[in-house]
Amino acid sequence: MAKPRVRGLSQLKRRCKAVSRGVAVAVDAGVVDGAEAIAADARTRAPVDSGELRDAIKVEHPPRLGSRSEAVVVVDPADIEGDYHPAYAEFGTSKMPARPFLTPAADAGRRTILRRVAARARRALNRKGG
Question: In 3-state terms, what secondary structure has residue 119?
Answer without folding.
Answer: helix
